[in-house]
Amino acid sequence: MPLLAPLSDWLILYPTRKKIDPYGASRHLIPFKKKHQLEAWVARSPGAAHREPEAYVLEFCGNASRAEYIAADIAWRWGKHPVEVWVVNYPGYGGSTGRATLKSIPRAALTAYDALSVHAGGRPIFACGNSLGTCAALHVAAQRKVAGMILQNPPPLRHLIIGKYGWWNLWIGASAMALEIPGHLDSLRNARKVEAPAVFLLAQQDELVLPRFQKKVVNAFGGPKRSVHFAGGHNSPVEGTTAEELHTSIDWLWLQAGLTRKQKPLSHHVPAHQVSLQSPVAVETTA
What we know:
Helix 4 (132-143) runs parallel beside helix 7, helix 5 runs antiparallel to helix 6 and helix 7 runs parallel beside helix 8 (211-220). A hairpin with a 3-residue loop joins strand 1 (26-32) and strand 2. The chain has nine helices and nine strands. It has helices at 7-12, 67-77, 104-120, 132-143, 157-165, 172-179, 187-193, 211-220, 240-256, and strands at 26-32, 36-44, 55-60, 83-89, 125-130, 148-152, 198-203, 225-230, 281-286.
């Protein structure tokens, strides 16, 4: 990364380009700007294994993750619901060309949505994300029509930087860094604009995005919402009881989006590459 790059890019983004096993997901390239491309990894839920999807999911990764890591898992998360999942690598990550910058993420997110919208042919699109990915997803939902959202451990970036890291530099350095965050990634502002329904998946022991900061995004969200709280850290896998409660919440999200077709239930079998976690959960719903 160039020496003159914003400090926020250095401290927040952790891009990698190494080859990763996509666990059966397929690669799709999206033209980006004049000479670049975005890499998306595509997988279908068990409910769409033998028929066409009824909806699509556009998923954005955390700051140190990759689409290849999570595409198959996100598809499995949707279980009986027939969806096709597109997980996007940010510029500078994996096969997405260009530099890894926060400034590039909002435009990349909208470009990915617009490409998926053409492919979807009018079928609903859910915008989802984990950690930094929730900032991209909320930007999309504030600018485009989405059927619903799943937002895991959402950070209000500017508030998080100042509130968590400001004390040791008298808030001077943290304030300067917070000002570098693109306005399009202001999750509080974007959340207020969204009218689509959302499921918030919130780790109670999150050491990176502390629960009090996650709550700011939840409280700001303008649409119907349901929160699933689970005992885990920022990178804890969503398994066991937590996964069962999340599946119930996805059923609610599906109905909220007007997708009412009944499906046969699936068992909560976990893919072999996932690690099981039993966690107590609490679910809150706001109409």
